[in-house]
Structure formats: C-alpha cells, structure tokens
Amino acid sequence: MKWKAVIIDDERNNIENLSLLLQEYCPAIQVAGSAINAMEGRKVITDLLPDIVFLDIQMPEESGFDLLRSLDNIDFEVIFVTAFDTYGIQAVKFSAVDYLLKPVNIEELKKAVNKTAARLQVKRENENVRNLLQYIKQPAPAGDHKLALPGARETRFVFVKDILYCKSDNTYTTFFLLNKEKIIVSKSIREYEELLYPYGIIRTHQSYLVNKHFIESFKKEEEGYLLLCDKTVIPISRLKKEFVKKELQL
Which DSSP helix (H) or strand (E) runs through 172? Predict the structure, then answer.
C-alpha cells in the first residue's frame, strides 16, 4: 500500500535528501510535493491532502508548530524533522509523536515510517468499519450510502447516488462519477451488479452497469442503446434488452 507524503523544510537540499532516502528505503511512501516555508506548506497540504507530513520544526517566520496551529483540520500523520535536539523536542517526546534528527539516520527513518504507516492502516480500517456501521444503521437503500472502492494506493468512499455508470475491463471495473472522476477497482463488474441493483444501478451489457437516474433516452436502433445525461452512449446487449425495457418501464 502506498502512502502520500509531503516534505516541508526551509532548506531545499534537506528536502531532496529526504526524498531520496524515502525512495530508496521506504518504497511505501510516495513524496507528492514539498514546501520551503509554512505559507507554502499550508497550500501543499490543502491541495494534496497527504497521509504523512515530514515537517521541519524550526523555520524562518513560522515554525512547524505554528503551521500546525494554523490548520483547521489535521487529518494526517506528522513526522517532525529537526537539526536540534532541544528545540521543541521535549514537547514532541511528551506527546509521543515521531521525530527525526538531522542528518537523518536510515534505521530511524524506517522505524518512524513503519510506526506511522501502522497507525494509518488502523485509521483506514476504522473508516471501513464506520462505513459498515452507517450501512447497518440505515439498511434500506438510500442515496447517502457510501460505497468503499479499494484501489492500489487508497480506498475511496463514494456516494452511490454519484455513480454515473461502471465499465468492465476483464477483472477491473472503472467507476465513472458525476464529477467526471474515474476510479479503477481491481474487482469484476459482476461483484457490483447485485450490490448496486437496489440503488437503481442496472446491468445493460456484459461490460456495463448504469445508474437509471441519469438515463436521458432509450435509442431503439439495432439492439438499442442508452444516452446518459452527460451524452455518454451505453450499449444494450441482446440478452439484456427486455430486462432494461422493463426496468425503464417501457
């Protein structure tokens, strides 16, 4: 599993060195961005939504602590990086937060990353459980149910009502959302057919599931096809034609 990280440090060579160490010794960490001060750090955190922030404590104008205090929501893990064993480290130790001293020791880096990844994994599993409990609490089909879509790097939770259609590619399924986002899942479309049917998402073809709420028209040419609200054309197989007509009350 990959975890997205950003590095915030006022010295670019420190950012480059840490990036190289992470690439070589911590392959589960993907460095998605960096910043050289607190102002840039706030933007990169907001834009990239990282899982982990490697944060220098002592920076000009605003420290790493100042940066954290300025954020409305901290939903990422922090590994502090500092060249000083005294500056703020007592508070960091007292709070049981991971930190690294510069120059970064490889073994200490791997240990900190492994501990942080373990916490992230628990957090993700807890999110899966929360989604389960929400579903159990409201067992009837409802538009505000979220579907967990496990990907290579992360599990996404999407509102079922936002699914436009799904397309199969062998053992993979691509979810096309209303906001034009695409999410690829390494599961066959068959696994979602029965699961999503109560929400009005129906099988029209061996390769397609379609949300009935977004069908604009039924075209009768040849076997027939569907035109969705975003003008996507969805085929209808010969075997599914009568089923689709029944579902659409045609």
Answer: strand 172-177
Model confidence, pTM: 0.55
- In this structure, which amino acid lies at residue 123? K
220 touches 245 (CB < 8 A): no
Contact 150, 134 (CB under 8 A): no
Q: How far apart are CA 171 and CA 190, in angstroms?
A: 9
**Per-residue pLDDT, 85:** 62
pLDDT above 60 for 2 = yes
Spatial separation of the C-alpha atoms in residues 104 and 174, rounded to whole Å? 41
d(CA 95, CA 47): 27
CA distance 161 to 65: 40
Q: Are 78 and 97 contacting, i.e. CB atoms less than 8 angstroms apart?
A: yes
Domain range annotation of the chain: 3-124, 146-247
The pLDDT value given to residue 90? 60
Whether the Cβ atoms of residue 41 and residue 7 lie closer than 8 Å to each other: no
Domain spanning 3-124: which superfamily? Response regulator (3.40.50.2300)
N-terminal to C-terminal alpha carbon distance within the chain: 46
Please give the mean pLDDT across all residues of the chain.
Answer: 85
Instruction: From residue 212, give the alpha-carbon distance in Å to each of 78, 196, 228, 245, 247.
Output: 44, 11, 9, 11, 8
In the CATH scheme, what architecture does the domain 146-247 have?
Beta Barrel (2.40)
